[in-house]
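Justification of resources, computational component.

The compute hours requested in this renewal are based largely on the per-chain cost of generating structure records like the one below. Each record pairs the submitted sequence with a full structure-token output. That output is archived, and it is also reused by downstream analysis tasks.
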Amino acid sequence: MQTPLSRRKVIALCAAAGGAALVPFGASRRAEAAPLLEWTGVSLGAVATLRLAHPDRSAGEAILRRAVAEARRLEAIFSLYRDDTALAELNRSGVLAAPPAELVHLLRLCDDMWRLTGGAFDPTVQPLWRCYADHFAGPDADPAGPPPQKLAEAVGLVGWTKVGVSRDRIVLGERGMGLTLNGIAQGYITDRVVDLLRQEGVHSSLVDMGEIRTLGHRPDGRAWRAEIATKAPPRRALDLIDKAVATTSADGFQFDAGGRCNHLFDPATGHCAGPAVSRTVIAPTAAIADALATAFALMDGERARRVLAEVPDTRLYVDA
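The structure output for this chain reads:
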């Protein structure tokens, strides 16, 4: 079972003096008419928060429970932090018959993101994670990373074109391959929760299942506001209305003290993004924001601009 990552994002949502990660900005008649209800927990190894406004507290709390149950159901498909999920079974056996429809749907979205980013986003980098984790688990591990031969062997197991996906069967093309959905599943779950809330008639919500997406305005009529916690002040403030935001940062998980070896792997070389790299993406959906933030951490500016030109209503913020 994979060791859980620390929280990847470096987004701090504007808070009052009490220090909560996300809070409403003050009362108004409209806010009082639709109280802001809240759930906080953990999803896919990250702190998760769900806030929604509903005029009927009892009905709103019931919707919260259904939304959390949906997130838990999807986590039981996509998680690498548990041994009993569909993804864990696929990685163990190399094949998964009669896969959950949601896993097929997400892998098809992964294919879209792989094509869009020219392979920078690639869910088959799990062998690289194992390679680095095994190396740094050993005594007196070289801080420069795994030996070239071991790294080359892991890179040889990476490649999205080796994965077969259909409604009936998912197949990993080589023994030793493995998938990780850590660069997109949190966003996907966030989007599914937003879809559920919209179907329940909710018009004002902030959903953070590891990545953030807003539904409508805040109860007081203003935009939800986020700040990118940059390495040097000032922070960049973002107003979010029916938008998603995701940040990928090399310091989200580091194998070595200096951060030269981190969780952002280049699928082509097996090397890691620079230790100071951080990318924030605003996009229409959290899954797209999540995947693009991961991919942009491995791209130069010109390559990232070409990708952005293909995705409407999407912005990139660079920190280092």
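The chain has nine helices and 13 strands. The first strand starts at residue 11 and ends at 13.
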